[in-house]
DNA sequence: TTAATGATGGGCT
DNA sequence: GCCCATCATTAAA
């Protein structure tokens, strides 16, 4: 059995990984691998950029209480919160903190590792660093949409795994594309990684 | 720099 | 219930 670089039989991160302080989870997610199983095979990419959204944070969808849209943020940690925005894009988040708290981490960029051809097809681009270098791009590359909202990431077709990758350095900055609480330093990314989004 | 594009939710009535 | 500014974006120009 010489399976090189396939993430088929890797154990997903446990619930306890997500049931922690949201900033900690945002930083810990860097370097982990997002894996989706589809009929055509496996899509996998290393998480290189994240943002934390906390309950008492005006930029957080949950800051004004539970609504139909944000209800999974208040649910069990380790589930996917996928929402539609700007009339044409989806954003993929990971629910963090204990049940009832309403916090999450936005996955802003990943480095494609496996299923790159399929991702390129979904994205209609051939440039590697343009495949998943932004939150909307991540969803398009992995084919994520409404139907994935609420999925349990600890067991199923959409998971996050640890493949033992060791980071060089994490950079901290303010979050991108928000108006409220724009001064909070809750964006994290892997230094010198070409798949991190720019602006 | 700006258009595309539509769901969401807060603030009314 | 209606109105409408807003929006955790992207691609094209």
How would you describe the overall organization of this protein?
Helices cover 14% and strands 29% of the residues. The mean pLDDT is 96. Strands 1, 2, 3, 4, 5, 6, 7 and 8 form an eight-stranded antiparallel beta sheet that branches. Helix 3 crosses helix 4. It is of the alpha+beta class and 199 residues long. It is built from four helices and eight strands, in the order ααβββββααβββ. The chain starts with 14 loop residues before the first helix and ends in a 9-residue tail after the last strand. It has a single domain, classed as Methylpurine-DNA glycosylase (MPG) (3-methyladenine DNA Glycosylase, Chain A, Roll).
Listing every helix as H and every strand as E from the N terminus to the C terminus, the arrangement reads HHEEEEEHHEEE
The major sheet is characterized as:
8 strands, antiparallel
Count of helical regions: 4
Q: What is the total number of structural domains?
A: 1
The number of E-state strands comes to 8
CATH topology: 3-methyladenine DNA Glycosylase, Chain A
Query: Which structural class best describes the helix and strand composition?
Result: alpha+beta
Helix content: 10-25%
How large a portion of the residues is in β-strands, by DSSP E?
Answer: 25-35%
Which architecture name does CATH use? Answer: Roll
Q: Can you identify the CATH superfamily?
A: Methylpurine-DNA glycosylase (MPG)
